[in-house]
Amino acid sequence: MLSRPDVAVIGAGPVGLAIAWRCAARGLRVAVHDPAPGSGASHVAAGMLAPVAEAYFGERELTGLLTASAARWPAFAAELTEAAGADVGHRTEGTLVVGLTGDDLAEARRLWAYQQRLGLPVTPLRPSQLRDREPALAPRLRGGALAATDHQVDPRRLVPALRTAAERAGAVVVPGLVTRLSDVDAGTVVVAAGCGAAALAGLPVRPVKGQVLRLRAPGGGGPGFRHVIRGYADGERVYLVPRDSGEVVVGATEEERSDTTVVAGAVLRLLRAAVDLVPELAEYDLVETLAGLRPGTPDNAPILGPLPGRPGVIAATGHHRHGIVLTPVTADLVAGLIVDGVADPLLAPFRPDRFGTEENTWN
Amino acid sequence: MLSRPDVAVIGAGPVGLAIAWRCAARGLRVAVHDPAPGSGASHVAAGMLAPVAEAYFGERELTGLLTASAARWPAFAAELTEAAGADVGHRTEGTLVVGLTGDDLAEARRLWAYQQRLGLPVTPLRPSQLRDREPALAPRLRGGALAATDHQVDPRRLVPALRTAAERAGAVVVPGLVTRLSDVDAGTVVVAAGCGAAALAGLPVRPVKGQVLRLRAPGGGGPGFRHVIRGYADGERVYLVPRDSGEVVVGATEEERSDTTVVAGAVLRLLRAAVDLVPELAEYDLVETLAGLRPGTPDNAPILGPLPGRPGVIAATGHHRHGIVLTPVTADLVAGLIVDGVADPLLAPFRPDRFGTEENTWN
Fold it and tell me: Is B78 on the interface with A (CB under 8 A)?
């Protein structure tokens, strides 16, 4: 245990650990509090680094942050691999976004046009071009697009690597649940507790349930495709993330619920959409079904920066679907706030005080 | 440990334990050998007692045995409940067999006509009559039938109850795998080892893989239907077995494979068929996916009786899909063979020597 650390981070998910790593590497004494490091949303997450495919209408500022963070990922992954001595499954084959039916393709095209207007690199492909890139795709797909800069990382490798890197830099992971901010005594307290930020700091973070499957290629080989595949299949949105290990992550529902049960209908819809897009997945082992809770916010964007009326407390939560991709930029900017006292302009749209000061307007 | 027991049973599934119970209750000293009692096919089985719905073309002798055993079930369940002091989930609401599409119904009707020619109690019902009995059934079902005497039991309650009853009667369960018959020294050796009978005794038993799901009604209540429901849904055969606990067993594939992996396509087909027949199942939790290996035989019928050329060795295996329903009759007849030396005429069609004496003709 540290006697009064410079920084106490509440939450040992990717965001909390990366902040701890950055601060410890800058010479601060850092404690990270978590009853079960890496057991939250990151345990369920697929690990897509997809600022392009995740650029949705009306989320322009979020798209800017996603893009900035994704651009940091190659260097971040390399530095982390070096610091931790562990591979984090960073892969750069890019993402294919596909539409199964004419309606699916029409919906996708509307979004690609918007993404192109933002200057994002999304390249429409004909069915034959899709199948040239990934012969495993269903022949009846009506079309798709390549988002070449949308990559992936393996969250289940990322978390232990970040912990190792943070600990090697001098941070201490303290087991145990923090239920009140006042229970932690440190120069700066960082709330990186995902959904727990609501109870801890009154922030407008709510759980958004996501159900996810993990398949495994039969026979011990790798999956029969290399790109991340995202798509619309008869109106159902699904993603397929292949790993070198043979694992394919299939996700995900988005539900305004706070339970983590796996429900038959969700599994049915995910499997049907997955097999519609990549028929060979029917032959894959189903090795895991689980659900996690994303920390959602009123505007789907994270909450980053000093808490109004709480000197010395900084929020780094509410990352919703984007916790993995936003890990590098969150860590860099929050460490900059703490160590240098400098608020990067990138942070401005994500300040905690944007929801107003009345706590009851947040919930 | 017993010094040279009268009877050594190899295999502590329902069949082996019930034989042990019957023999011990008749005063014999009985040992049951199994490395993991109740971990075989019975752990996966749904526990339907369905001689009518399982009466298929060309299996008339098997149908006779199934009917005889099902008739013994009410008394067997009552006696076992008394002996073990444990409920085994015996339920007598009957079975509804349904057809989703016109083609499904046509296929089902052909079988019902055959079953009626055998004098079996199967009563066709119109869609409105089906829904009167089970409002949870899909409105678009084209028709069905009631097999009122096809009941159910819970195999996961049955096995521990049988073990308790056998032990209370004096039988001893010996942990450990028997790999050769000659390793067991007893007056009579009973091979009740399921698929293990092939390696142990050269019997023509092969694994038939079955994948099964377990759902659970949300909110802690019971399922929204009481009958066992079996059906054809767009050519897919599925059964749904509701338990008081809220569990619904959904099964099952039949595959000529010896692995026990759970495969995405099988889960997809089972879930789709289940939700097609009973839409509310989409809202149920998916709590378990697993696969087991049924002990199949060349003619789908069990192998019951003295092994040719092996004095003192009796087979009680090869029960394929019917191990649970056939447990009472198997136990009674095999105990009769051992204790009284009497071969019931019911056994005649199931003698081990029916496959010929050349081992290579069995495999």
Answer: no
